[in-house]
């Protein structure tokens, strides 16, 4: 048979969700599947270039739809009519206001996507950025009769409109049980979704000489005990808690060094938070121990060159790709016990779990690993083994390919899912 055409729709080219998309598309079986990646907007041009260099068709959908829109694509009157019986007049009014707000803000994405989908005629559409980002995309795919997969990679608070549109999704793909539970709590039936955790390749560990060079470039030797924290410099990632934990260990652990790997987002809050971290390190007296590296393309090698990896988010983590990257590098990971961290890290086996926002508990965990080199080695080996068993790219891609083939078996009349029953 001919290859299955998959249209991947993403709202932007930045962040972890874009990396996950790149991993998936790169490893698809090209004898069975024909992917096309459609980006609504470009934040990271290099990702587009990398995808194209790997032989993928990539299209950037320009925001060219005039404000008048295309009434044939988004039949608002029909949506209100079909909702009236189920929600009553008050519900219709609420939904009407929600629809008007959504269309006013989002409608300029629709026409370019509609044109692309009609031209490509995909068998399945895979929306990459969750229900809230893709609400109109999903509605459009319903109108075109295309089975739609919605990849949910963050916690979402759903409006009445989004819960309605959710009925037009054939399958939700959740990156963790924590994300799945949040959707189900808001009324999305469990049978409509599957949990497919993110994945990572098992890297080759840098050579001893390479590790020496990486450490030396950041002012460290083999005698230092290095703790690496990897993540964007945003408040909920908890780098401030990490610094507070280090301050508690000041003078207690010989040669303690911290690498804060990551950069601030472009928004003012993230920029201000990044500046406050530098000031905090100075005020806590650990400026000489904490190295702020900025964004590093070799972050995986840096994790492998450290002794411990820390992920200190203060809010529930939807997944935490850094966690499995640190584990794949063969290092024990200290992670917050909120969200998906509890699903990934086996406490006292592959790493340690600590309460989110608890600098004292984080300091205790770092102290435990600093004093037990044999435990670090054992945990690192178990961590790498767990990634190979549960978070491998082969397992990840195979599960999604099976889902695509399942969607292909839908009868034509079943493809046009009814939003209101």
Write the layout of secondary structure elements.
Layout: E1 4-10, H1 15-27, E2 33-39, H2 45-53, E3 57-60, H3 76-106, H4 110-120, E4 124-127, H5 130-133, H6 135-144, E5 148-152, H7 160-165, E6 171-174, H8 177-185, E7 193-195, H9 208-217, E8 225-230, H10 239-248, E9 256-261, H11 268-283, E10 290-294, H12 299-305, E11 308-311, H13 321-328, E12 333-336, H14 341-344, E13 351-354, H15 359-370, H16 373-390, H17 393-408, H18 412-415
Parallel strand pairs: 1-2, 1-4, 2-3, 4-5, 5-6, 6-7, 8-9, 8-11, 9-10, 11-12, 12-13
Compact description:
Helices cover 47% and strands 15% of the residues. With 421 residues, the chain is an alpha/beta fold. It folds into two domains: 4-199 and 394-415, Glycogen Phosphorylase B (Rossmann fold, 3-Layer(aba) Sandwich); 208-391, Glycogen Phosphorylase B (Rossmann fold, 3-Layer(aba) Sandwich).
Q: What do these coordinates show?
A:
With 421 residues, the chain is α/β, with parallel strands linked by helices. It has 2 domains: 218 residues, Glycogen Phosphorylase B (Rossmann fold); 184 residues, Glycogen Phosphorylase B (Rossmann fold), CATH 3.40.50. Helix content is 47%, strand content 15%. It has 18 helices and 13 strands. Strands 3-2-1-4-5-6-7 form a 7-stranded parallel sheet, sandwiched between helices. Strand 8, helix 10 and strand 9 form a beta-alpha-beta unit. Helix 9 packs across helix 12, helix 10 packs across helix 15 and helix 13 crosses helix 16. The longest helix is centred in the first third of the chain and has 31 residues. It starts with a strand and ends in a 6-residue tail after the last helix.
């Amino acid at each position: 048979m001919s290859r299955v055409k998959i249209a991947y729709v993403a709202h932007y080219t930045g962040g972890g969700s874009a990396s996950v998309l790149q991993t998936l598309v790169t490893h698809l079986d090209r004898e069975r599947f024909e992917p096309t990646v459609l980006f609504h907007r470009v934040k990271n041009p290099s990702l587009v270039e990398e995808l194209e260099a790997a032989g993928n068709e990539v299209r950037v959908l320009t925001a060219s739809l005039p404000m008048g829109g295309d009434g044939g694509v988004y039949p608002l009157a029909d949506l209100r009519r079909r909702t009236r019986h189920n929600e009553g007049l008050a519900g219709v009014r609420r939904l009407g206001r929600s629809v008007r707000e959504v269309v006013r803000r989002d409608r300029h994405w629709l026409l370019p996507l509609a044109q692309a989908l009609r031209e490509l005629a995909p068998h399945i559409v895979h929306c990459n950025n969750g229900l809230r980002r893709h609400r109109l995309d999903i509605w459009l795919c319903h109108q075109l009769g295309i089975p739609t997969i919605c990849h949910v990679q963050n916690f979402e608070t759903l409006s009445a409109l989004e819960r309605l549109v959710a009925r037009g999704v054939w399958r939700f793909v959740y990156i963790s049980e924590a994300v799945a539970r949040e959707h189900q709590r808001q009324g999305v039936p469990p049978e409509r979704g599957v949990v497919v955790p993110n994945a990572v390749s098992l890297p080759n560990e840098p050579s001893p000489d390479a590790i020496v060079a990486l450490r030396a470039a950041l002012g460290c030797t083999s005698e230092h005990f290095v703790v690496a924290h990897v993540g964007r410099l945003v408040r909920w990632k908890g780098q401030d808690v990490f610094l507070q934990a280090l301050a508690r260990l000041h003078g207690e652990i010989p040669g303690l060094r911290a690498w804060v790997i990551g950069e601030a987002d472009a928004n003012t809050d993230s920029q201000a938070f990044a500046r406050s971290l530098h000031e905090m390190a100075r005020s806590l007296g650990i400026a000489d121990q904490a190295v702020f590296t900025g964004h590093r393309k070799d972050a995986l090698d840096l994790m492998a060159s450290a002794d411990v990896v820390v992920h200190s988010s203060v809010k529930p983590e939807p997944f935490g790709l850094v966690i499995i990257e640190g584990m794949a590098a063969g290092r024990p990971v200290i992670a917050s016990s909120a969200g998906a961290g509890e699903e990934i890290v086996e406490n006292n086996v592959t790493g340690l779990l600590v309460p989110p926002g608890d600098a004292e508990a984080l300091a205790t965990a770092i102290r435990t690993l600093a004093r037990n080199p044999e435990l670090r080695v054992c945990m690192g080996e178990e961590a790498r083994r767990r990634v190979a068993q549960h978070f491998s790219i082969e397992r990840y891609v195979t599960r999604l390919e099976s889902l695509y083939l399942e969607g292909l078996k839908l009868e034509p009349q079943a493809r046009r899912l009814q939003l209101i029953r």
